[in-house]
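Standup, Tuesday
Yesterday: got the pipeline producing structure tokens again.
Today: sanity-check two examples.
Blockers: none.

Example 1:
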Amino acid sequence: MTRVQTVETEVAIIGAGPAGLLLSHLLAHDGVESVVVEHRSRSHVESRIRAGILESAVVELLDKAGLGSRLAEEGQPHRGIYLQWPGHRHHVDFVELVGRGVHLYGQSELQLDLGRARDAEGQACYYAVSGTALHDVETDLPSVSFADAEGRPVRLEARAIAGCDGKHGPSRQSIPASVRSTFELGYPFAWLGILAAVPPSTDELIYAWHPEGFALHSMRSAAVSRLYLQVPVGTDVAEWSDEQIWDALATRLGEGQTGWELERGPIFDKAVLPFQSFVMAPMRHGRLFIAGDAAHTVPPTGAKGLNLAFADVALLAPALVSLLRDGDPRLADAYSDSALRRVWRSTYFSWWMTTTLHTTGDPFVSELQRTQLEMTVSSRARATALAESYAGLPIGA
């Protein structure tokens, strides 16, 4: 019989994505020990191409945590975005409207920064584990069991568990169905996203409404462009040739409009992204606290997913420090309500961006959408509301 290895720690963190590693880093700064558990390999986690837009408050958070040096050197500050519909393209200047913009910096780069920071401090992190299970979360001494990469059984004995393991992880399911409430909204479309080895054709992101469907021109670096097309749910990416993708992007992004042209190049990654809004409450049960996609997901239209996860962690870290170091439960008791206020605000904004920009085929809705876009760019108050939500509220607001 294989002997179970027992490891004692203060906080067991499930999930080594950006939220889990940042939480570990913030806890360590205040002298709270943690161990991170991740079911995927480290190389897989560090290679995922995902969100790349960071709110100003998140940039400040990372800088204060000593994680902002490479972001400052390589990240791309953006003042705002372009809103577009046929015959019109308008720049919404966030900095002019609310005094702050956003940064483009890929999640894979953040993952590398966080991993290196944890390595430098000798962080205990188990990758490629299996069979992760949570135990005794309603007690003051919860634990996590799993098999490590070599198949050896391990048990983490902790004083709190942080579930940062996404929507498919075990943390969400460890909150009893009788306790949790879930709120879901599906959308009848998806995104076909590509990464192309071509310099961006724009200085700021372009969000384009078009009768044939939404399109977004984003970027990852000076040499790599990130672009998206609205497609039906269930679309097989193999149905779209590279030429078809570029032609559809050129049409929807308004090539030829005021002399603008879309630069084309080799596509080295393409995938279909489904859309969903999901919120679970509460985000705490006993000594289990959940954060990020384990508790909520939003459509990518408003660029809120990664920023929400970091905002959760920024609230959770001091709550755990107060609970475990000072024996003061007030921040921990308030964590779920405080986090959910921001979650619902961001969920609303993501829904607004999504429903305003994605076509439905209904002519009545189309006219309402174009009217909404016209009102947004012609009203300083409406443009300010957009800028405030996109650039992000202060952490804790």
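Example 2:
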Amino acid sequence: MALITNAIKGTLDTLPANSYKIQYVEAVMREIAENYGFHEMRTPVFEHTELFQRSVGETTDVVQKEMYTFEDKGGRSITLKPEGTAGAVRSYLEHGLFNEAMPQKIYYITPCYRYEKPQAGRLREFHQFGVECFGAGTAAQDAEVILLGNEIFNYLGINNLTLEINSIGCPECRKNFQHALKEYFSSHYDELCDTCKGRLEKNPMRILDCKSPICSEIGKSAPKILDYLCDECNEHFELVKKYLTANNIEFKVNPTIVRGLDYYTRTVFEFVSNDIGAQGTVCGGGRYDGLIEEMGGKPTPACGFGLGLERLLLLMDAQNTEFPERKMCDLFIGSMGENANIKASAIATDLRNEGLAAQFDTVGRSVKAQMKYADKIGALYTMVLGDSELESGKAVLKNMQTGDQTEIALDDFTDNFQAMIIKQAMDGLDGLGMEGIDLSEILGGSING
């Protein structure tokens, strides 16, 4: 019997000690996406099952093996979203965003669910950052989406990533390719896994994405899609490469990339790392010009990518990537007696209103225990209030890093506190020969800032 105090297999808790890391990563992604003209969309965590069957593809591993599908109390087949694109397209169509100025550029950060064997970098509940651009069919848009992902990695300080690109053509030029694949894999029929034997008739290209070692090995010698591209698709792919080169983006053409979802056309790409073992694809995406029409809309070009946040953080940890320091407590106010604690509460509120992180005792501990707690949470300054401090209107402020103590007036405490820490910091800079720096602008009203 499962313990209810244990997380379900394939899921992870994000604890306060680490949550600041993912908040930082998400903030970077949001800001860069906004700079590229993408704006946030939020869609439900579950959709009609048919949405994913039609968009992702019935012959994919996702639909055949990995979806969390159930029947709700109304008898409807519902699926927890396994990826973000299908829900974004559904929302685009339902709300008539095709009537707005084109292209429509959106991003999302959303939980996704796939029933897979849990391992490092592969969870059953994971979070995906994705971008989607609807209404632009040019190679320039493909390149821009790739550039956006590349800028995120650069900003976060992630190294040793390889951008791999390919073109899987349009439906017309894929017909001959599919025929060649069928002939090739038919000659290896007895060696294929049962799943790929079923794919051979419906969609032989899916065999190239099989995770079975035997099928993967057979696939290495299979015909290559680049040899079957029509002139238009070939020209598009060459332009993508020119745009990437013009933007100093290094890339490798990998003709085996097909991506795991049926809706892709033409450009497909992956950012791959060797630092996190077998789950090396950190970000993947491409163009999917037929998906919106497949789901009932007018023919509309589209492209985008998905990036798993947990896998990204795993990579950042493996590379010892630096994060901004976690926000600490600027001031912990200790107290002796109820009146002093009420005053501490009022001072803390004023500080918080000015953007400072302040805490006071809400447990009823002794002053000694309060100071131990202040030390454990990394408070930068402490102050203790009692009857004598309330009567005199003054208290002693202690710098927990240097041990320096300074008397401070309780009236207009927030202004006095900010002025004092700026002066102490300026004195420290003077000692380093950095006179003349306006620290108040650097601090921006917060020690942690």
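Quick observation on example 2: Residues 331-443 form a domain with the Rossmann fold fold (CATH 3.40.50.800). Residues 434-449 have pLDDT under 50 and may be disordered.
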